[in-house]
Amino acid sequence: MRRVIVVDDEPITRMDICEILREGGYDVIGQAADGFDAIEQCKNLKPDFVIMDVKMPILDGLKASKIIIKDKLARGAVLLTAYSSQEFIEEAKNIGVSGYIVKPIDEKSFLPNLEVILSKQEEYEALEKKYIKTNQKLEDRKRLDIAKSILMERDKMTEKEAYTYIRSLSMDKRCDMGKIIDIIILSGETNA
């Protein structure tokens, strides 16, 4: 069940959105009437998503969404607004909102649109995690190659011998290979 905070300065609209979401199987964990309160609730409640109006007092939805996204206070923000001008849409794209739904809310299309938006956000998150993991593996491989080259040059080892030495040292010392690699690289830098 996705945990959601609903933010709208109109109490009746906020209540309607909450009711639609609850009936659709969402867990509405909080409500706010302005962007400032939305940020504070996100800090405290850690929702999956925030559904937020754009035009609100104190702090508007675009500025609040920018902070929520930048500080990773929620997995995503979906703007729900009566404003459909290109200016608002461009700003929403630039700050990285997950979706933009134009009011008035049509119950028949609201939940399906929201489902697609949130599904795409989850796909993006999975790709981002895969990218980070792949990038880390690449960085680990680069560090291993640097450590092997230090051993090959300094101790006149072959590449295979250098790798075997690193692996054996890791097992003998019951230490992660990454730490052994870091020590070899550090020792290679101090000898330079």
Q: Which series of helices and strands comes N to C?
A: EHEHEHEHEHHH
* Total domain count: 2
* CATH fold-level topology of the largest domain: Rossmann fold
CATH superfamily grouping of the largest domain: Response regulator
Q: Major beta sheet, specifics?
A: 5 strands, parallel
- The fraction of residues assigned to DSSP E strands is 5-15%
Portion in helices: 55-70%
GO biological process, one term: phosphorelay signal transduction system
GO molecular function, one term: RNA binding
Keywords: Coiled coil, Phosphoprotein
Coiled coil: 117-144
Give an overview of the whole structure.
By secondary structure, the protein is α/β, with parallel strands linked by helices. Helix content is about 65%, strand content about 15%. It has 7 helices and 5 strands, in the order βαβαβαβαβααα. Strands 2-1-3-4-5 form a 5-stranded parallel beta sheet, sandwiched between helices. Strand 1 (about 5), helix 1 and strand 2 form a beta-alpha-beta unit. The chain is elongated.
What's a quick, concise take on this entry?
With 192 residues, this protein is of the alpha/beta class.
Give the topology.
Blueprint: E1 3-7, H1 11-23, E2 27-32, H2 35-45, E3 49-52, H3 61-70, E4 76-81, H4 86-95, E5 99-102, H5 107-155, H6 159-172, H7 177-191
Helix pairs in contact: 2-3, 3-4, 5-6, 5-7, 6-7
Domain ANTAR: 124-185
Pfam families: ANTAR, Response_reg
Domain Response regulatory: 3-118
Question: What would the keywords be for this entry?
Answer:
alpha/beta, single chain, Arc Repressor Mutant, subunit A, elongated, 5-stranded parallel beta sheet, Rossmann fold, 192 residues
